[in-house]
Amino acid sequence: MRVLLVDDHALVRNGLRAVLDTTADCTVVGEAATGEAAVDLAETLQPDVVVMDLSMPGAGGVAATAALRVRVPTARVLVLTTFADDARVRAALAAGATGYLLKDADPDDVVRAVQATARDEVPIDPRVARSLLPRGADRHADSDGPAGAGTGSGVPAGTGGAVRSDGGGPVGGRADGPDRHDAGGPFRGAADRDAPDLPPRERDVLVRLARGLSNRQIATELGIAERTVKVHVGSVFRRIGVADRTSAALWARDHGW
Question: How many angstroms separate the CA atoms of 69 and 90, rounded?
């Protein structure tokens, strides 16, 4: 696994290199201090994973991530930043970031997130994941069975904090504009009449998918086969017009689920 480190602070890059170089399946192939340099270097080095800061001189991490998705489409971007606000999270994911982790995560969590990103999974810091959920979803999660994410620092427990992107396309979703609905909870409100009428089982799957659960975890909660969950996930993607799980979670929030 080839990793490119992008951060304008040498101390951060050195710390990341020290952690990742001790991982058997990981090789840090380069470092960059700006978004522009990162894109140019990635074209040459062809990394599997780019660990990307957001706030840097010149083109920031969001712009660099969007450029990487075009110029080095095989590279997966893991955002590693101090920012946990909704606007930056949504902008980074919409630009094509595969995962999003906060800088105060434990070193082991960073390693697991990099590995998950290389597998095209979606590692999301649980503190960030909460901002992607519809209002009230955390209460629903508490009453609906075990959640897929912890409440402390680092990545969610159970599956290394990652959920597989079955859609296979770049991570997308709208990063601009306010949420269209304020209705909380997992069920659509009257204001959302333009949304597709999902069958009850697909609603169940979408609610849990938006919580960050893997197919296996969804299958366990619903008492159905994992293969059946995968079929439902694909059907949900087609009905709501998205290509991956992160976009589905953003869609669910935008539509008041």
Answer: 16
